Amino acid sequence: MKLQLSTWPEIEKYLEQSRGIVIPIGSTEQHGPTGLIGTDALCPEIIAEGMHAEGILIGPTLSIGMAQHHLGFPGSITLKPSTLMAVVVDVVGSLAVQGFERIYFLNGHGGNIATVNAAFAEVYAESSLSGQAGGLHLKLANWFAGKRVTRLSRELFGDAEGSHATPSEISLTWHAYPDQVRDVPLDPERAPEGPIRDASDYRKHFPDGRIGAESGLARREHGRKLYEAALADALEDYHGFLV
Questions:
Q1: Cα(50)–Cα(65) distance, rounded to whole angstroms?
Q2: Inter-residue contact 226 to 152 (CB < 8 Å)
Q3: CATH at 87
Q4: I need a surface site. Which of 24, 50, 189, 219 has the fewest CB within 10 A?
C-alpha cells in the first residue's frame, strides 16, 4: 500500500488495523562516475517497493538529505542539518496527529544518521515537556547495515566495498534500473580512503567522488541478491518494530 496512491478514507481504514508506516529517506548526491546521483534515495525506495508488496504502508521518499560535502560535484543537493531536522519533525508530527504510532524511516545515506536521530530526540523531548503520553515510536534503519546485507557485501566485495559509491549500492540501483548501467573506466580501480570536511576539501582529495570503493565490481546480478537480502532484513526489522 502506498500513501501517494491511496485516498484519505483508505488511510483512515488502514489505521483501524495498523499504526505503522515506512518512510524511505536518502540523499541527492554524486556517487562517482558510475553511480547515480539519486542512489541513496533510490536504494531504500527500491526496498520499500518490496515491503509495499507485503501490504505495508509506504510513505513518500524524503530524497534530499545531508550532503553538503558533495556540493563540489554538479547535481548534488543538500539540506542544512537544521532544515532536515525540521522536515523530519514535521513529517512525524503530521502522521502522529492522525494516529500513526510506529514511524519507521528506511535510510540510504550515512550522512543522515546523526541529524535524523537528533530530530527524533526533539520529538521525544517535546512530548516529555508537554506531558503528553509517550505512545510514539520512531526508528531509523539503515538498509546497508542489515545482517544479511553486510554478510553478502563481505562475500561479494570484501574490503573493496569502501564507504562511498560502493559496489553494493550501485549494484542495487542497477538491478532496479537496468537501463542505467554505466561502463566507465575507473582510475584508480579502488578509490583512496581518508577523512572529509567541506565540499572543496572532498573534491581535492577524492576527485572522482568515490571513497575507498572499487565501484567497478558492481553487477546487476549482485544487485538482485542484495535486494533479496535487504528486503528480508527490512521486513524482519519492521515487523519486530511494530510489536
A1: 23
A2: yes
A3: 3.40.50.10310
A4: 189
